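re: ur question from earlier - yeah i can do the single chain one, its not a big deal. heres the input i used so u can compare w yours
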Amino acid sequence: MARPQAEGMVHISELLQLKPISDDIFVGVCHAARVGQANGGQITAHSVLAAGYTVDVEDLHSLHCYFLRPGRPEHPIEYRVKRVRDGRNFASRQVDAWQSDKSICTMICSFQRPTSGRDFQTENPALEENSLTPPDECQPSVSLLKRFSLAEKILDIREIVKDRARASQSLWVRVREELSHSSLTHAAALAYLSDLDLGALPFLSAPDSPEDAASLDHSLRVHRRVRADEWLQVLQCSPVVSSSRAFTTAEFSDRNGRRVASASQELLILPPRTA
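and the output i got, formated as tokens:
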């Protein structure tokens, strides 16, 4: 049975399209995350795809990127891939994103061939408690949708619980579009949504703060194959803020309680803007 289409739905597969310039260079365009700045999650997802197009190993298992300068939305970004290593079971790539002759982001990532082995995870009481509330019984995250205008058209986001005192929240999230079976496509979509709302977490305990935040870096580890177009439960928190930097984390689990990915991000806390 086909999934109902949201009015005005934006297909993430279109947002993630890249144009090949050569075997190791690709060009894409990003939408805005905030006025005048390209979406960091989309830059990360584009980088994943650019790297993935140069490897025979399809499964992304980790990435770490540094955001060096703000990118401009609706302007071409060139993704240059460096083939660091191709091993028997792993392939490593470095991707540098350039815009207007300036480097705006650099990412190192690694892919692994599917393999069998030990499979284990610790219990998470918070995850088990939140899983008792299915997505259909949760309301859309209104506050998140206000901050990210395209979110409702790209993602289906339901709020489970928010704890302002602990600067944490739990969400159900999935890509609205039904995607292909390509592991690389789902990894790129996961990279896109793994950046979702992490910049707002340090302010949950101080919602009236005039401060802002800018992403310094972003990491993602994919523990198991994941479908980004199926419901994922996300546990997000910001456990520490110090030296004008905030540390945030996100844990992704499928509806069976299997932890499929983990993300973390460090943010620079910015002083209030003056007129």
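Residues 40-52 form the longest helix (13 residues). not sure if urs matches, ping me
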